[in-house]
């Protein structure tokens, strides 16, 4: 799908260039980013990938000027000189909750409106003074700015953008604070794209988009002439959209650069590795790069051991009990001096090679987080297993959110619920979980059936009132139960690095908090596991491992997802909801 909205400007020559050089940032003793360097040329679309907590969102905020790095520089020059206008899509909406949809969108295109007015004013001034060089230059400058911002296509871009992102039917007089979370997220994306910044920064832009919305965004980005830097979990979107990927997972930097720090480990953004091509290309390249790193580390450690042994033993030439054959004193002194010089030269050479290698050796490849499966705690207890249909929705409906929908889930079945935004996928899962009462129809659960839901929004209540400094370990213990947490420690799942278990929940990334919520859910595996958009906010490696674990889960699994990659590989049952929830 080709969008009518293109980034202002007609050539890459006039577009800015984003440069990130030697960026490092720590929060206390926790190193978040270390020595990150790469560039995003005009017209390039670069994807940021890496483990949850590797610093993707932090790097975007640094590029937007919302955070100040401890070291390094970030530079983006505007077309024609000066500082570039940088636009960031992140969790906070760029408009006030009291503003109407129209007011929010008008704020987005205000620079274009101002530029159009400037052209009119400059044209009038030139008409009054047709021979004035100053007036002519003012008009030319105003016209160039107006063309850059496509001021004469504003209304067309309005309509194309709202339709493309599924917002065409949104009442323009409705307060943005009254919109659903998904509608606000899509409106924020529309706002950002309509504001046409010189440099575009996107944090999980497809989280609330269906297929049509994602296709529209892909079309917009394909015609964007400025630099685009984005973090996304959407593998199909990355595969279709990016021209390069920057992996923030630990890179094989010299030990002297990446040296030890208490918080180092999986998920620390130390160095960056750039991969050209699509996400599929990256998957193959990354495995090869990791294998090369591990091989280089092993070879260097072996060489270091050999050199250290050489320094210890290279104090004599020949045998330890060697002595000159002649008993002449002068000859003995001559041979002894020659032996001492040879020993000194050998020791110095060995020490020099050892020092060079100790300085340049790559750091040890950190252990990679590896999800140990949906039933890592234990299988569903045999005593509470069921057979046949265990969860039945019969013409279940929720006014305004889910028209009558029927679904029968049998023990051990795997279901995928798909459909566009607004079709009721999340509402159906909440009704199945018992969190939402249907306004008509019914939901029947087998006697003693245990149902667990991983919602899109992270829910980690604080029943013990521990406060804002409650750690991930404490939250897991509180929510899973102390006895259960002792039997099934948080570390068993491979969802959080050990260093993150003792960090406050509030400082964890959204992805890390969602990992924690998943661990709580799996501490005592339910008979029916409901996963609402499980690929959202999770690292790409974990998403792949999570998908692979679903078929082996002994209980039933119902997944609601718009993820195209998951849909392509799904082998279980399917239910597709239509617009307005009609199956």
Automatic annotation (TrEMBL):
Single GO MF annotation: ATP hydrolysis activity
UniProt-listed InterPro entries: AAA+_ATPase, ABC_transporter-like_ATP-bd, ABC_transporter-like_CS, ABCF, P-loop_NTPase
Domain annotation ABC transporter: ranges: 18-275, 385-582
**Gene3D superfamilies listed in its UniProt record:** P-loop containing nucleotide triphosphate hydrolases
Which superkingdom is the protein from? Bacteria
> Which keywords has UniProt assigned to this entry?
ATP-binding, Nucleotide-binding, Repeat
State the name under which the record lists this protein. Answer: Macrolide transport system ATP-binding/permease protein
Q: Which organism is it from?
A: Bogoriella caseilytica
């Amino acid at each position: 799908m080709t969008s009518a909205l293109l980034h202002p400007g007609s050539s890459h020559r006039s577009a800015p260039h984003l440069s990130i050089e030697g960026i490092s940032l720590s929060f206390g003793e926790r190193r978040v980013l270390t020595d990150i360097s790469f560039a995003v040329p005009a017209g390039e679309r670069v994807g940021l990938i890496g483990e949850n907590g590797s610093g993707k969102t932090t790097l975007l905020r640094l590029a937007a000027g919302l955070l100040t790095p401890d070291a390094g520089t970030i530079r983006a020059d505007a077309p024609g000189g000066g500082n570039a206008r940088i636009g960031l899509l992140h969790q906070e909406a760029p408009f006030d909750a009291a503003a109407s949809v129209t007011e929010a969108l008008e704020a987005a295109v205000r620079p274009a409106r101002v530029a159009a007015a400037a052209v009119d004013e400059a044209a009038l001034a030139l008409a009054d003074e047709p021979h004035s060089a100053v007036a002519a230059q003012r008009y030319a400058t105003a016209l160039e700015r107006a063309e850059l911002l496509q001021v004469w296509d504003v209304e067309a871009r309005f309509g194309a953008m709202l339709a493309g992102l599924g917002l065409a039917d949104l009442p323009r007089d409705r307060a943005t604070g009254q919109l659903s979370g998904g509608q606000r997220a899509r409106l924020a994306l529309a706002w950002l794209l309509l504001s046409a910044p010189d440099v575009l920064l996107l944090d999980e832009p497809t989280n609330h988009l269906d297929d049509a919305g994602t296709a529209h965004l892909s079309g917009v980005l394909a015609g964007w002439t400025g630099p685009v830097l984005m973090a996304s979990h959407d593998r199909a979107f990355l595969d279709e959209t990016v021209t390069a990927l920057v992996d923030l997972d630990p890179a094989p930097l010299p030990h002297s650069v990446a040296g030890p720090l208490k918080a180092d480990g999986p998920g620390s953004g130390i160095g960056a590795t750039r991969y050209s091509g699509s996400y599929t290309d990256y998957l193959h390249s990354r495995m090869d790069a990791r294998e090369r790193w591990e091989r280089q580390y092993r070879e260097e450690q072996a060489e270091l051991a050999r050199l250290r042994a050489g320094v210890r033993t290279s104090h004599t030439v020949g045998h330890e009990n060697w002595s000159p054959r002649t008993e002449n004193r002068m000859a003995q002194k001559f041979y002894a001096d020659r032996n001492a010089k040879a020993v000194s030269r050998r020791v110095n050479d060995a020490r020099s090679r050892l020092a060079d290698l100790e300085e340049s050796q790559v750091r040890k490849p950190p252990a990679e987080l590896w999800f140990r499966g949906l039933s890592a705690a234990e299988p569903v207890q045999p005593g509470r297993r069921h057979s046949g249909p265990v969860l039945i929705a019969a013409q279940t409906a929720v006014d305004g959110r889910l028209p009558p929908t029927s679904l029968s889930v049998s023990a051990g079945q795997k279901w995928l619920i798909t459909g566009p935004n607004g079709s009721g996928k999340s509402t159906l899962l909440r009704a199945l979980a018992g969190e939402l009462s249907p306004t008509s129809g019914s939901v029947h659960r087998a006697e003693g059936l245990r149902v667990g839901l991983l919602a899109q929004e992270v829910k980690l209540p604080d029943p013990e009132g521990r406060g804002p400094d409650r750690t991930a370990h404490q939250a897991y213990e509180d929510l899973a139960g102390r006895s259960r947490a002792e039997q099934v420690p948080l570390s068993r799942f491979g969802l959080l690095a050990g260093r993150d278990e003792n960090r406050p929940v509030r400082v964890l990334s959204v992805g890390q908090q969602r990992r924690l919520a998943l661990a709580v859910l799996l501490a005592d595996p339910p008979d029916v596991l409901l996963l609402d958009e499980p690929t959202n906010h999770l690292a790409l490696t974990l998403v792949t491992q999570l998908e692979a674990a679903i078929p082996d889960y002994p209980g039933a699994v119902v997944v609601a997802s718009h993820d195209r990659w998951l849909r392509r590989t799904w082998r279980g049952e399917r239910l597709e909801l239509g617009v307005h929830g009609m199956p």
